[in-house]
From TrEMBL:
Catalytic-site annotation from UniProt: 474
Region (Disordered), start-end ranges: 1-80
Keywords tagged on the record: ATP-binding, Magnesium, Membrane, Metal-binding, Nucleotide-binding, Translocase, Transmembrane, Transmembrane helix
Residues binding Mg(2+), per UniProt: 474, 476, 889, 893
Taxonomic classification: Eukaryota, Viridiplantae, Streptophyta, Embryophyta, Tracheophyta
Keyword Isomerase in annotation: no
GO molecular-function terms, A-Z: ATP binding; ATP hydrolysis activity; ATPase-coupled intramembrane lipid transporter activity; magnesium ion binding
PROSITE patterns according to UniProt: ATPASE_E1_E2
E.C. numbers: 7.6.2.1
Residue positions binding ATP: 474-476, 578, 619, 642, 677, 758-760, 863, 869, 892-893
Record family assignment: Belongs to the cation transport ATPase (P-type) (TC 3.A.3) family. Type IV subfamily.
Protein name: Phospholipid-transporting ATPase
Compartmental location: Membrane
Coiled-coil ranges from the UniProt annotation: none
C-alpha cells in the first residue's frame, strides 16, 4: 500500500509548456515527449519577504525579450482575450449556462440512432463508386423492357453485400451504445442546495456545478480543483486512460479556494474555450475578497483521470460531455487506402472497358441483325412481333430497330455486370478481418514486458505490409527502451564513470527509507564530495547533486514493505530522465524525501534540510532548459538550471572557469559518442536585489489574466537564466531494445531502407546508429550541418557530386541519380541535422535532398522537430511509388505516423498518442521483422491472388454468356438461370477464395525469416501487375471457350434445350474455377478442403433444388442431363481441356524461369532447412533489385 507525502504545489504558469512531442535534443531530464509536463511555480507562504514589488515593465527594460514562439505552438500558449474566454460561475450552474446553455455531460461515441442508421449507413456505403454502379444496374433491371433477371434475383447480390456490412456496422454501434449508456449512468457527488453532496448521474452534471470525487474514483468531467483532502491543496492523479502514462501526476488547489468550505465556495472562473490540448490550460479565478488568481494545467483534472493517494478532491466543472478534452481527442486512426486496392482501380477500369466493348459488339450486331431481318420478325424466335398463342393473333411490344438496339445495349450491361465482381469487395473486407485476427493472435509479436499484443487499428491496409520500401523510425523509446540509467558525470571538468551498484538508505523519524532503484556510484566522486579533494571541489560536487535533487518535478511516494520499519521511495514523474537523475542524487547522498506546496525536503549526507521553492521555470522548446529558484537553509537564494549543452553554454558567465567549460565540453562529446543522453547543470546565486526583481516580476506575470501571460513568463525565464556557473554534466544511457540490431539487418537484407529521425544530438544518434548496426564501418558518411540556406545548398550539391562519383565507380545497376535504382557498390550514409532541414525542406532544395537521400543506404536525421519528421516522410512518399512505414512511440511521432502509408505505434513509456494515431500497434521494434517479412509477405500474396482470381472467376462466366448471345440472334437471352447467375459469385465460389485469402501460405515462417530477400517479391509487385492481369484474362477467355463449345458440339444434334445446357455450363464453370483455385493452393488444411469441395457440393444441391421448383424455368432439366453418360464425359472434357494450358504453363515457368519464392518452396520440399548445406548458394540466385 502506497502512502504519500505532501507534494510540491506546482504553480502553473512559470513558463508555457512546450508543444507535445517537441524535440528535446540531448536533455536527459526531458525526453522528446516530456514537454507535456505541467508548468510549476510556487512561492513559499512561510517566510515571504516584504521587499518592494517590481513592475513587469522593468523586466522588459532589463533587456529580456520574449522568446519567439514555435509555429506549432500549443493552444494553451496562445494569448486569448477576455471576449474569447468561457465564464464559469462557481456553484451557480443556472447563471453559468445563460444566455447560451453549454452541452451537458453526456457523451456519445455511437454513430447511429434507430432513425438515422439506415439512411446514414447506406449513404456511407455508397461512397464506393462500385456500389453506385451496381445500384444503377439493379434499377435498370426493374424496367420491364430491360428485365433480364427477375427483380428478386437482380437485387440479391447488392442487398447481400449491403446487408452484411450493415449488420457488422450495427453490431459495432450497438456495442458503442452500451458503452455510452454505462458511462453516462455512472454517479458522482454534486453539491446540492443544502450544502451537502448528493449522487447525480454523470450525464446530468452541468458546467458550474461543484463535484466531489473520492480516492480511486474516475473524474466525470474536466474540472478546476478547488480543494483537496491535503491541507496544502495537493492531489495525485493517474492519467493512464488519457495518455497511457501510469506515473502519478500532481494537481493542486489554489490557497484562496483551498481554505474555503465547499458549501461557501463562489467566484468567477475565466478560462479558454474547449480545445484538444490535454497538456495545457489557461484561466483565472476571481475569488470574493481576494485578487484574481491565475490557473494553469496543474489546476485542472481531466475527465477519465483517476484520483490516487488522495482521500477526496472538490472541483468545479468547466468542460462537460463532448467538450471535454478527452472527447475532443477521441478520433480514430486515420483512414488510409491500400496500394493494392488503388492499383486494382486500373484493372476495374480495364474490365469496364471490356464490358462496354462486349456490350457494343452485341449492340452493333443486334442492330445489323434486326435490319437484315426486319421483314421476318413476325414469327422469328427471340424477336417475334406476332403472338399466335391465343385464339386470335396478338402483337408483342416492339419498338423499332433504333430503340431495340438501345435496349440491347442496356440489357447486355445488366447481363454482363458480373464482369466487375461485386463480391470482391465484401470478400476483401472479410479476408482482411481474418488476417488481422491471425496477426493479433501471433505469439511471436506478444511483448512479455508490457503484456501487450499486436493491435490492428486499420483493417484496410494489411497487404501494404508486404510492399514496404522505407521505414522511418524514432529513436528514443522505439529503438531504445526509454529506461534511463545514470552512468557517469562530469563535475568540475573531471569525468567520473566508475563504480558499482550499492543499496543506499537513510533513516528518518525512526524509519528506514530506501530508493526503489540502485545506481552505480563512483568512489572517487564520493571522496570529492566528502572533502577529500578540497573544500571548493566538495562544494561544487554537492551543488551538482543538490541541483539534480531539486531542479525537477519528481514526486516521492513512500511505499510500505513487508518490514514495518522499512519503506521504499518510489520517485514518480512523467520523465524517465528525471527519475534517473533523482535516483542518482539519492545514491550520492542527496535524497529527495518530501515535496509540499512551498518547499521540498532533501536528506543531504545524513541530515534533513528544507529548501523553499519560490518558483520553477518549466522547460520549453525555445530555451531547451528548465530552472528552479530555491531558498536554502543558509538564507541564500540560488537558481539551479539544467538543459541541453548548446542552450546552457549560451547562458554561462563569460570568462569564468574556462578550463572547466572546455573540459566539460570534451566530456560531453565523449558521452555522446557512447550513445549517452547528455545534460548540462548550472547554478546562479541571486542577490537580494536580483531575487526581489525576479519575484516581483514573477508575481505580476502570474497575476495577468489570460492576456500576455505566456510571453511575460518566457521573458522572465530568459532574463533570470543568465550568468550561470557550470557545475557539471551527466550521461544517461537509454539502452537498445532487444533484437534491434538483428531486426535492422534483416530489413536491410529484405531491401528495406531504414531511416532514423530523432531529436537527439548528432554524436548520440550516430553512436546509437553504430550500436544497432544501422551504420557500419564500411559506409561513407555524408554529413550536412549547415546554418544557412546557401551553405545547405552547397553541401547538397557536394553530396550529389560525391554520391554520383561513388555510384559511377561501383558495379551494379544504375542509381537513382542516373536512372533506375540504388547502387550495389559503396554503401552511403547521410547524416543531417534539424537546423539544416529548416532550409532544406524548401521546394528548391528538396529535390537535391531527395537525390542524395535515395542513393544512400541509411539516412540519419538529428535534432528534428515533429513537423520535420513528417516532411522527410512526405519527401519520399510524394516523389516515389515506394511504400513508406513510420514507427514511433511518442506524441512527437504522430505527424510522421499519419503521413506515412503505414503508421505503427509502439506501446511504450511515452504515452499512447502514437498508438492512438497509428494503423497498427505493437510492443517492440523487433516485431517489425515478423510483421513485415512474414505476415506482410503472406497478406500481400494472398490478397493479390484473391483479386486476380475474382477477376478470372467472373470473366469466365461473362464470356460464356457472351458466346451464348452470339448464337441467339443477339437477343440477350440466357441459358443459365437468373438464380444460378446471381448465386455464382456469392455462394457457389465465394467461400474458398476467402478461406485461401486468410489461411494460405506460400512459404513457412522459418523460410521467410531465414531468407529476408524473399520480401522483395512484394516490392517488385510480382504477384499483382498488369502483365498477370492480361494473362489471367487470356486464360479466362480460353477456359470460357472450352466450357461453352464442348457441350455445344456434344449436344449439337440432340433435343437438349437451353435450360439443360445452362445447368451443364454452370456446374462445369463452378467445378472448373474451384479446381483452378485448388491448383494454386500452397498449403492444404481441413478448412480449405471443406470450403472448396463443400462449395462444389452446394452448387450441385442448389441446381437440383432450383430445377425441382415447377414455377421456375428449367424444371427437371438437371435430372434429364445427369441421367446420361454424355453429361459426365462433357464435364471431364471441359476440365481437362480448360486446365491443360494453365497447368503446362505453370510447370514450364516454375522449372525454366523460377522466381525467388518458387526456389524457396523447392528448398522446403527437398530438405530440412535446419540441416541444409547448399541453400545459401541457391539463394544467391535471388534478384537483388
Amino acid at each position: 500500500m502506497a502512502t504519500s507525502r505532501p507534494v510540491f504545489h506546482p504553480p502553473n504558469d512559470l513558463a508555457a509548456p512546450a508543444e507535445p512531442g517537441s524535440p528535446v535534443m540531448v536533455a536527459p531530464l526531458l525526453p522528446k515527449s516530456s514537454p507535456r509536463r505541467r508548468s510549476l511555480s510556487s512561492r513559499s507562504r512561510e517566510g515571504r519577504t516584504s521587499w518592494d514589488a517590481f513592475s513587469v515593465e522593468n523586466l522588459e527594460r532589463s533587456g529580456s525579450r520574449p522568446v519567439a514562439s514555435s509555429p506549432s505552438k500549443r493552444a494553451s500558449q496562445r494569448e486569448i482575450s477576455d471576449d474569447e474566454a468561457r465564464l464559469v460561475y462557481i456553484s451557480d450552474p443556472d447563471r453559468t449556462n445563460q444566455p447560451l446553455r453549454f452541452v451537458d455531460n453526456s457523451i456519445r461515441t455511437a454513430k447511429y440512432s434507430v432513425l438515422t442508421f439506415l439512411p446514414r449507413n447506406l449513404f456511407e456505403q455508397f461512397h464506393r463508386v462500385a456500389y453506385v454502379y451496381f445500384l444503377i444496374l439493379v434499377g435498370l433491371n426493374q424496367i420491364p423492357q430491360l428485365g433480364v433477371f427477375t427483380p428478386a434475383a437482380s437485387v440479391l447480390p447488392l442487398a447481400l453485400v449491403l446487408g452484411v456490412t450493415a449488420v457488422k456496422d450495427a453490431y459495432e454501434d450497438w456495442r458503442r451504445h452500451l458503452s455510452d449508456r454505462t458511462e453516462n449512468t455512472r454517479t458522482a457527488h454534486v453539491l446540492a442546495a443544502g450544502g451537502e453532496f448528493w449522487p447525480k448521474r454523470w450525464k446530468d452534471i452541468l458546467v458550474g456545478e461543484v463535484v466531489k470525487v473520492a480516492a480511486d474514483e474516475t473524474l466525470p468531467c474536466d474540472m478546476v480543483v478547488l480543494a483537496t483532502s491535503d491541507p496544502t491543496g495537493v492531489a495525485y492523479v493517474q492519467t493512464i486512460n488519457l495518455d497511457g502514462e501510469s506515473n502519478l501526476k500532481t494537481r493542486y488547489a489554489k490557497q484562496e479556494t483551498q481554505s474555503t468550505p465547499p458549501e461557501a465556495m463562489s467566484g468567477l472562473i475565466r478560462c479558454e474555450k474547449p480545445n484538444r490540448n490535454i497538456y495545457g490550460f489557461l484561466g483565472g479565478v476571481d475569488v470574493p475578497g481576494s485578487k484574481r488568481v491565475s490557473l494553469g494545467p496543474a489546476n485542472i483534472i481531466l475527465r477519465g483521470s483517476e484520483l490516487k493517494n488522495t482521500s477526496w478532491v472538490v472541483g468545479v466543472a468547466v468542460y462537460t460531455g463532448q467538450e471535454t478534452k478527452v472527447m475532443l481527442n477521441s478520433s480514430g486512426a486515420p483512414s488510409k487506402r491500400s496500394r493494392l486496392e488503388a492499383h486494382m482501380n486500373r484493372e476495374v477500369i480495364l474490365l469496364a472497358v471490356a464490358l462496354i466493348t462486349l456490350c457494343s459488339i452485341i449492340t452493333i450486331l443486334a442492330g445489323v441483325w434486326l435490319t437484315n431481318h426486319r421483314d421476318e420478325l413476325d414469327d422469328l424466335p427471340y424477336y417475334r412481333k406476332e403472338d399466335f398463342s391465343g385464339p386470335e393473333a396478338d402483337t408483342y411490344d416492339y419498338y423499332g430497330v433504333g430503340l431495340e438496339t438501345l435496349i440491347s445495349f442496356l440489357k447486355s450491361v445488366i447481363i454482363f455486370q458480373v464482369m466487375i465482381p461485386i463480391a470482391l469487395y465484401i470478400s476483401m473486407e472479410l479476408v482482411r478481418l481474418g488476417q488481422a485476427f491471425l496477426m493479433m493472435q501471433d505469439k511471436n509479436m506478444f511483448d512479455e514486458g508490457s503484456k501487450t499484443s499486436f493491435q490492428c487499428r486499420a483493417l484496410n491496409i494489411n497487404e501494404d505490409l508486404g510492399q514496404i520500401k522505407y521505414v522511418f523510425s524514432d529513436k528514443t523509446g522505439t529503438l531504445t527502451e526509454n529506461k534511463m540509467e545514470f552512468l557517469c558525470a562530469s563535475v568540475g571538468g573531471v569525468d567520473y564513470s566508475g563504480g558499482e551498484e550499492e543499496a543506499h538508505s537513510i533513516s528518518v523519524a525512526g524509519k528506514t527509507l530506501r530508493p526503489k532503484m540502485t545506481v552505480k556510484t563512483d568512489p572517487e566522486l564520493m571522496n570529492v564530495m566528502m572533502g577529500g579533494k578540497g573544500i571548493e571541489k566538495a562544494k561544487q560536487a554537492r551543488d551538482f547533486f543538490l541541483a539534480l535533487a531539486t531542479c525537477n518535478t519528481i514526486v516521492p511516494i513512500l511505499v510500505d514493505t513487508a518490514e514495518p520499519s522499512l519503506k521504499v521511495i518510489d520517485y514518480q514523474g512523467e520523465s524517465p530522465d528525471e527519475q534517473a537523475l533523482v535516483y542518482a542524487a539519492a545514491a550520492y547522498g542527496f535524497t529527495l524525501v518530501e515535496r509540499t506546496s512551498g518547499h521540498i525536503v532533501v536528506h543531504v549526507l545524513g541530515e534533513s534540510q528544507r529548501y523553499d521553492v519560490f518558483g520553477l521555470h518549466e522547460f520549453d522548446s525555445d530555451r531547451k532548459r528548465m530552472s528552479v529558484v530555491i531558498g536554502c537553509p543558509d538564507k541564500t537564494v540560488k537558481l539551479f538550471a539544467k538543459g541541453a549543452d548548446n542552450s546552457m553554454f549560451g547562458v554561462i558567465q563569460k570568462g569564468r572557469d574556462l578550463d572547466v567549460v572546455r573540459a566539460t565540453q570534451t566530456d560531453l562529446l565523449a558521452y555522446s559518442s557512447l550513445g549517452l543522453r547528455t545534460l548540462v547543470v548550472g547554478m546562479r546565486e541571486l542577490s537580494k536585489s536580483e531575487f526581489k526583481e525576479w519575484q516581483s516580476a514573477f508575481e505580476n506575470a502570474n497575476a495577468a489574466a489570460l492576456i500576455g501571460r505566456g510571453k511575460l513568463l518566457r521573458a522572465l525565464a530568459s532574463n533570470v537564466e543568465r550568468n550561470v556557473h557550470i557545475l557539471g554534466a551527466s550521461g544517461i544511457e537509454d539502452k537498445l531494445q532487444q533484437g534491434v540490431p538483428e531486426a535492422i539487418e534483416s530489413m536491410r537484407q529484405a531491401g528495406i531502407k531504414v531511416w532514423v529521425l530523432t531529436g537527439d544530438k548528432q554524436e548520440t544518434a550516430v553512436s546509437i546508429g553504430f550500436s544497432c548496426k544501422l551504420l557500419t564501418n564500411d559506409m561513407t558518411q555524408i554529413v550536412i550541418n549547415s546554418s544557412s540556406r546557401e551553405s545547405c545548398k552547397k553541401s547538397l550539391q557536394d553530396a550529389v557530386s560525391l554520391s554520383s562519383k561513388l555510384a559511377a565507380a561501383s558495379p551494379g545497376p544504375e542509381n537513382i541519380l542516373t536512372g533506375t535504382g540504388p547502387s550495389s557498390g559503396v554503401p552511403l550514409a547521410l547524416v543531417i541535422d534539424g537546423t539544416s532541414l529548416v532550409h532544406v525542406l524548401e521546394k528548391e532544395l528538396e529535390d537535391e535532398l531527395f537525390k542524395v537521400a535515395t542513393v544512400c543506404d541509411v539516412v540519419l536525421c538529428c535534432r528534428v522537430a515533429p513537423l520535420q519528421k513528417a516532411g522527410i516522410v512526405a519527401l519520399i512518399k510524394n516523389r516515389t511509388d515506394d511504400m513508406t512505414l513510420a514507427i514511433g512511440d511518442g506524441a512527437n511521432d504522430v505527424s510522421m505516423i499519419q503521413m506515412a502509408d503505414v503508421g505503427i505505434g509502439i506501446s511504450g513509456r511515452e504515452g499512447r498518442q502514437a498508438v492512438m494515431a497509428s494503423d497498427f500497434a505493437m510492443g517492440q521494434f523487433r516485431f517489425l521483422v515478423p510483421l513485415l517479412l512474414v505476415h506482410g509477405h503472406w497478406n500481400y500474396q494472398r490478397m493479390a491472388y484473391m483479386i486476380l482470381y475474382n477477376f478470372y472467376r467472373n470473366a469466365v462466366l461473362v464470356f460464356i454468356l457472351f458466346w451464348y448471345v452470339l448464337y441467339t440472334a443477339y437477343s440477350l437471352t440466357t441459358a443459365i438461370s437468373d438464380w444460378n447467375t446471381q448465386l455464382y459469385s456469392i455462394v457457389y465460389t465465394a467461400l474458398p477464395t476467402i478461406v485461401v485469402g486468410i489461411l494460405d501460405k506460400d512459404l513457412s515462417r522459418k523460410t521467410l525469416l531465414k531468407y529476408p530477400q524473399l520480401y522483395k517479391a512484394g516490392q517488385r509487385d510480382e504477384r499483382y501487375n498488369l502483365r498477370l492481369f492480361i494473362l489471367t484474362m487470356m486464360d479466362s477467355i480460353w477456359q470460357s471457350i472450352a466450357v461453352f463449345y464442348i457441350p455445344c458440339i456434344a449436344y449439337g444434334r440432340s433435343d437438349v434445350d437451353g435450360s439443360g445446357l445452362g445447368d451443364l455450363w454452370i456446374l462445369a464453370v463452378v467445378l472448373l474455377v474451384n479446381l483452378h483455385l485448388a491448383m494454386d493452393v500452397f498449403r492444404w488444411n481441413w478448412i480449405t478442403h471443406a470450403s472448396l469441395w463443400g462449395c462444389i457440393i452446394a452448387t450441385v444441391v442448389c441446381v437440383i433444388i432450383l430445377d425441382s421448383i415447377r414455377m421456375l424455368p428449367g424444371y427437371w432439366a438437371i435430372f434429364n442431363m445427369m441421367g446420361t453418360g454424355l453429361f459426365w464425359v462433357c464435364l471431364l472434357g471441359i476440365i481437362v481441356s480448360a486446365l491443360v494450358p494453365r497447368f503446362t504453363t505453370k510447370v514450364l515457368t516454375e522449372y525454366s524461369i523460377p522466381s525467388d519464392v518458387q526456389i524457396a518452396r523447392e528448398l522446403e520440399k527437398i530438405q530440412n532447412l535446419s540441416t541444409a548445406t547448399t541453400s545459401a548458394i541457391l539463394m544467391n540466385t535471388f534478384s537483388q533489385s
